[in-house]
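[Discussion] Sanity-checking designs against the backbone

I'm trying to build intuition for which residues belong where. Below is a structure token string of 146 positions. I'd appreciate it if someone posts a full sequence so I can compare it with mine line by line.
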């Protein structure tokens, strides 16, 4: 079960495990904002939302794009193939790695296995497979919301 952690100004920071949340309460770095009405942990209600006791400055975290991950690309593209629009379960490199392409937000799109195999070691133009969407670097907030 995940517990949402809020900053002192009510902005959502992230989620933590129940075990981590209990540790935060014991260290007195957070207080329970909302608890599950029917579940208890010891003699305390099980937290659903915690609020930090001190404000955490987050500009360092949100000032730049998040690091590239395959999971992030699939989330950014809503698990939709960038070539045919079907359900995507893998990532395709627009410029293949063997030809100098890299694992970056702007060089990868979500793809289904059929399109990924069909495109193979070619660019979309060489394969005659135009992209339906443009690859871009998402914000952290966009990845958290997706």
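Best answer:
Here's mine. Compare freely.
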């Amino acid at each position: 079960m995940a517990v949402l952690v809020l900053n002192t100004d009510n902005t959502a920071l992230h989620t933590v495990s129940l075990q981590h949340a209990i540790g935060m309460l014991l260290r007195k770095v957070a207080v329970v904002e909302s608890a599950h009405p029917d579940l208890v942990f010891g003699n305390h209600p099980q937290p659903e939302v915690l609020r930090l006791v001190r404000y955490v400055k987050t500009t360092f975290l949100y000032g730049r794009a998040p690091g590239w991950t395959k999971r992030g690309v699939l989330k950014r593209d809503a698990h939709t193939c960038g070539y045919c629009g079907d359900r995507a379960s893998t990532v395709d490199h627009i410029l293949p790695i063997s030809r100098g392409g890299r694992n970056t937000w702007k060089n990868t799109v979500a793809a289904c296995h059929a399109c990924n195999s069909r495109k193979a070691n070619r660019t979309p133009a060489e394969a005659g497979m135009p992209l339906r969407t443009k690859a871009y670097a998402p914000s952290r907030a966009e990845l958290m919301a997706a």
